[in-house]
Amino acid sequence: MIDANQTLGQVATAHPASTLVFLRHRLDFCCGGGQRLDEACRSAGLDPARVIREIESEGTTRTPERWDAKPLPDLIDFILGRYHEPLRADLPALIEAARRVERVHGKKPSCPTGLASLLEQLAAELEQHMMKEEHALFPAIRAGRRGGPVHMPIRVMMQEHDDHGANLRRLRELATGFAPPVEACATWRALYAGLEKLESELMEHIHLENNVLFPRALNA
């Protein structure tokens, strides 16, 4: 049973299918996962009861994996394979597509000028972030370190997650909500579709770390 007094992060952890509903309604369940569901809905002009019904309906047709009770090494393996590796594979192509769109369509008012630079910044920050996790924090968690020994690195990672969230909001703003204009070419349309996928997957990625992996590593 979903309680409107639960936080977005708690709902997303216990009901993984809810992430689709949250993405649909632009409810921030990753960096903003500490908001209560009812408060987040009202701030967005949504009826909490209706959102809960949507989540329950989504859960009857989609049953994604729950990670809140599985071994932490398994969750780390999932994060590495499902999010770290695809990010490294996908970002270079998105950056190149953004450069091409700006080069070819730069004189059009609808051109997302500055998008390639922002993507390059995001890619560099994500690479540094993932390296810290892969070479320091994740090995420490795998080795069984809990609580105090991982408190500071987790705090740093969560602050960097906030920075990634801010960059995602800037991306969406520059790309006009990922809705291509009527004059957009195939590359432009593919770029926006790729950016929307990047946004949803990075939000899921951050949610799993902020709301599942890190709390369990700190509280175990």
Q: In percent, how much strand structure appears in the residues?
A: under 5%
- The general outline is globular
| Assembly context of the chains | single chain
How far apart are the termini? 25 Å
**pLDDT below 50 for ≥5 consecutive residues: which ranges?**
none
Mean pLDDT: 94
The Cα radius of gyration reads: 18 Å
Set out the fold topology.
Blueprint: H1 8-14, H2 18-24, H3 37-43, H4 48-61, H5 72-105, H6 115-142, H7 148-174, H8 186-219
Summary?
With 220 residues, the protein is mainly alpha-helical. It contains eight helices and no strands.
Describe the structure.
It is a single chain. The chain is mostly helical and 220 residues long. It has 2 domains: 8-61, no CATH class; 72-219. The chain has helices spanning 8-14, 18-24, 37-43, 48-61, 72-105, 115-142, 148-174, 186-219. Helix 1 crosses helix 8 (186-219), helix 2 crosses helix 4 (48-61) and helix 5 packs antiparallel against helix 6 (115-142). The longest helix has 34 residues, at 72-105. The protein is globular. The two termini are 25 Å apart.
List keywords for this structure.
single chain, 220 residues, mainly alpha, 2 domains, globular
